[in-house]
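Private note to self, pasted from the team thread so I don't lose it. Backbone tokens:
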């Protein structure tokens, strides 16, 4: 019995539509198989361990099964899922008071005349991996996630706008601030 072939050829949006109509856990399993690694990687960027990332991933998919009908198709499903996972993980981190990172250093937002330093993308290519990993642990989960979305997952600005529900200029400003904070943390970790 080869009923997987038609399911494999369904687009994400068609698969979601069928799941919402039938509430079929087997169909949802197909969606899970398509995105479990992506969701896990996003959860891992917010967590402190593989075990916590696995737990978060399971929680995201449980909540996704319940909330799937809220997907309206205004963006690609993958973008919507990024947003869903990002928001879920951000809420998780914010609920966990012990995990909040306190920024004792002078914020780069307070540079002379209120201007931020413009850090070129090429600068990140020169960072040593071990120092970069250490620096990523010293910035906020929101900044870390945004940088990973942009530079690791290669999510374009237009999709980040949908994901974060903010304007293009706001996305660019958040990226600029996050890059500045990462550079500061990187320089301290060397």
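Design output:
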């Amino acid at each position: 019995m080869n009923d997987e072939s038609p399911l494999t050829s369904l687009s994400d949006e068609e698969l979601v539509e069928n799941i919402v109509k039938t509430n079929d856990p087997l169909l949802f399993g197909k969606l899970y198989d398509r995105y479990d690694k992506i969701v896990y990687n996003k959860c891992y960027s917010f967590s402190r361990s593989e075990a916590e990332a696995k737990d978060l991933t399971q929680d995201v998919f449980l909540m996704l099964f319940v909330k799937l009908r809220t997907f309206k198709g205004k963006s690609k499903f993958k973008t919507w899922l990024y947003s869903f996972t990002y928001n879920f993980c951000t809420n998780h981190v914010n609920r966990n008071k012990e995990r909040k990172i306190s920024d004792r250093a002078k914020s780069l937002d307070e540079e002379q005349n209120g201007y931020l330093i413009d850090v070129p993308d090429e600068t990140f290519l020169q960072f040593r991996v071990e120092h970069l990993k250490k620096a990523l642990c010293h910035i906020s989960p929101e900044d870390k996630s945004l940088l990973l979305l942009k530079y690791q997952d290669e999510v374009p600005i237009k999709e980040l706008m949908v994901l974060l529900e903010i304007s293009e200029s706001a996305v660019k400003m958040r990226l600029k601030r996050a890059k500045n904070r990462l550079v500061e943390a990187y320089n301290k970790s060397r």
